[in-house]
Amino acid sequence: MGEAIRFTVLGAVRAVRGGDTLTTGSPQQQALLAALLLRSGRAVPAHELIAAVWGDEAPDSALSSLRTYAWRLRGIVEEDRSCPKVLVSLRDGYQLLVGPGAVDALYAEELAADAARARAAGQEEECGRLLTESLALWQGEPLAGVPGPFAEQQRSRLTALRLALQEERFAHDVRQGRFALVIPDLIGFTQEHPLQERPYGFLMRALYVTGRQADALAVFGRARRTLADELGIDPGPELSALHRQILANDPLLMGRVDGAPEPGTGLTAPPAPEASAAHDAGPAAPHAPEPPAPTRPAQLPADISDFTGRAGQVQALYRALTAPSRPSLTIVSVTGMGGIGKSTLALQVAHQAKPDFPGGQLYADLRGNGLEPADPGAVLGSFLTALGIPGQGLPASTEDRALLFRTALDGRRVLVVLDNARDPAQIRPLLPGSADCGVIITSRAMLAGLSTTLQSDLDVFDTREAIALLRAIVGAERIGAEPEAAAELVALCGHLPLAVRIVAARLAARPRWRVATMTGRLADERLRIGELRAGDLGVAAAFELGYHQLPRPQARVFRLLAPVARQGIGTAAAAAALGLDEYDAEELLESLVDAAMLEAPLPGRYRYHDLVRSFALQLVVVERPGSEPAESEEAAAALGRLLDHLLDGACSAFQAMVPGDPVGAILGGRPESGPHFATLAEARAWVAAEFDCAVNAAALAAQSPANAGPRILRTAGDLLVALSPFGRDIPYRQLAAAARKVADTAAAHGDDQAEARARFVCGNAAVQYTQLAEAELHTRLATEACQRAGDEVILQQILNDRGLIAQWQRRFSDAVDFYDRATELARELGHRSGELITVLNAAQARLRSGRPAEAAQACEGVLERLRTVRDPHGTSYAWYVHGMALHELGRRADAVASYTACLDICASARLRGRETQARFRLSDSLRDLGRYDEALAQAEQALGLSEELGSQRERGHCLLALARALAQTGASGTALARARQAHDVFMGLGLPDADQAELLVRSLGGLVGAVEG
Prior knowledge:
Elements: E1 5-8, E2 14-17, E3 20-22, H1 27-37, H2 46-54, H3 62-77, E4 87-90, E5 93-96, H4 104-120, H5 124-135, H6 149-175, H7 179-192, H8 197-209, H9 213-231, H10 237-247, H11 274-281, H12 311-322, E6 330-335, H13 342-353, E7 361-365, H14 376-386, H15 398-409, E8 415-421, H16 424-427, E9 438-443, E10 454-457, H17 463-474, H18 476-481, H19 483-492, H20 497-509, H21 515-523, E11 533-534, E12 537-538, H22 540-548, H23 552-564, E13 569-570, H24 571-578, H25 582-594, E14 599-602, E15 605-607, H26 610-617, H27 631-657, H28 663-666, H29 680-702, H30 710-723, H31 732-749, H32 752-768, H33 772-789, H34 792-808, H35 812-829, H36 832-848, H37 852-865, H38 872-888, H39 892-909, H40 912-928, H41 932-949, H42 952-968, H43 972-989, H44 993-1012
Parallel strand pairs: 6-9, 6-10, 7-8, 8-9
Antiparallel strand pairs: 1-2, 2-3, 4-5, 11-12, 13-15, 14-15
Helix pairs in contact: 1-2, 1-3, 4-5, 5-6, 6-8, 7-8, 8-9, 8-10, 9-10, 12-13, 14-15, 17-19, 17-20, 19-21, 20-22, 23-25, 23-26, 23-27, 24-25, 24-27, 27-29, 27-30, 29-30, 29-31, 30-31, 30-32, 31-32, 32-33, 32-34, 33-34, 34-35, 34-36, 35-36, 36-37, 36-38, 37-38, 38-39, 38-40, 39-40, 40-41, ...
């Protein structure tokens, strides 16, 4: 047992001692072991370990299971389990005391860092040896079979590390002139990872130097096609420059390699003539509109007046940011533990540097400290609109937004502050490309793999700095009167800036208190949450002290809102949850803001800091006779009141979106009690503002115990249904995720009504995203639950969705049957608009099954009924299907007239999805009439719209229409490329339309081959 133990995570999780492999237990036990191993010996609190192993789905027995796993692991790693020295308990958590060399992943990172240092010192052979040794540690997929969010994140990180090491090994071999030997591995790598641009450059150079110029040029062509097809971009400047050098037989490529710049890291070539450069650049990325005249953003949060200490770090960061000679983008980072003052320091430096960045400042909180970090695509959207680019013109993908962002900042001196970053993957899309810009990043993690100009790793305050902060907030006179108590106070705070600031705020708010009073209260520690801990020093004491200083009404608000305010909460919603009027609720919320226990990012909206909310969630109130009701009962009551409030507002918004729909009448809400929306825009704004709160509340309802009764679960299901018509305005996938939780819980509780409505939302979301297998499953289960519950109103909606699914699968007979059943139900329910829509859907299915005359007649009947009614959705849809029917009947000119009528309505009502469909159908009719230029223009407009809206199914149809129009204009090669793209889209969605696309590809392929021959 005295032999050293080693651990592997770069493959299956194993423990090895003396050549013997030890069992590491169940997958969850391995997840706990991994969470301890990959934190480099840091103590990990219990709640963080629970989140790592189970995430948001932690069972009630999670803590007990965690203790059991730890006990079993001690049997593996300890000589004496009763006297642990390796896996030790610290407060409520654990610490695994093993060196980095004992864990293969940590050792791999050490070797990677050593390799970088060896290269910097010119020791190339040592660099290559270290890279090879590091890569040899991988034995398969990292953490294979280990569950949990932490393992998933680490799998991604370690896989990315391996790719980076492979690229560095290729770079080393190229620098050493091993061109012939590296070619096979580079070919395999570029095929396996076709979107990694840098290895293409290594392969091109190796092929060229070994006399294979044509093959090198072919590699560039493949890279350009792949990047264009997959990402809509051209190769970067480095790869393009290398391409030009190879075309020109540049003798520099045949010279010495040692010390030469690498492809992708600085290889340059003489500038090409403007015309040639424009030709090489290829077509512009489809998502990159020309940015309008720039605006000057000024997004920095306010600086604080009592900033204290850190003088050396401030000056060093400022000098790095504002250095006059900057060959590349300047990135400075500030790292350290939570509460250390990273954000405060970053903003101090940013405000000092403002005059050096006349183009403005951009700021984003990336929420990397929490379980739900900010999405880079969403942050880019915010940045681009701040730079003056209209929101409706933004690309859908993160990659295209990043391209547009770099374009917008080119030539401008803008400072970008990225606060609370999670990791380099989150940061990279948000970096400008221009050396004129500057970036400040704050993060708890060391940002390995990100090239920074300067990194400042913050430590806790010394006693002098901590007391200076106390003096700035509390007042010099009070602190000067009790110097010993002040020194003891900052020591009890662990000299951590956040803790010092909190206790100073309490003292400032209570001018009659002595410093010694606060010191005495802080010394009386209670059980601390592990996340607020710096080694043996605890900041949690300050949070707990702040909580215990709150009057009872404020303490109740602090506890009750923590579960329901996951992303934040508005005043009205908070008032409802608390059972108060808005005035009293706002008074209490503002008092918590004053006490630094809540934040107010916007007027009327409140949120917890991640760590403060975690603290609040772990509070336990001991029930005493005659006191408040048990905490779980009060929390359930608060959730129920909040759900009622949100459902009232959602029902009001539902009526504004789909007036007259009978679904609104069966939902349990009272729209007359909710907000009144004068316009649809107001309803949409309310839904957008309350969406996060509503989805979180529904998910919490799904966690309610079986004895909570059906009402809370049914209210959650109704809330999700009421929000479902706003699919274009909300993250529908999040709505569907909450609906799945509600549906599963309802099914377990035997609540057919709640299950039916939640399953309807799941199925509708799957239909929206063309996930047909999932849509079939949920709509079938929803149908069965509706029939058991007798819920005919929701059943009518589900049957319509099932008709759509069958139609897309080309089961037209089944589709007509579903639509006809839905139509009959709509008539029985008096649902006029629902009846007309399903009639039109059925007409479309009849059209697809070869009955266009019946379809045209049905559309004409609907149009007649809509003649005196203002229903832009229904009328535009009727004209659209009418155009399709006339096209199939050979009446192309009449079809053009119907599509044009549809487009007129779409333009006035802003129905962009229907506009997309009408344009690609119109393109086909115009093409058949010989109006090829008009057909091409309509198809191109339709494709642009589909890509803006992110609709993959419609994008596939637009690509097909565009391919057919291009073929008629003689552009057969481009037409073939578009047809192949359409085929790939339909195959990815699992749609039978892929067969139609394949036929067009074959036809165009033969045409192109004949022309080339």
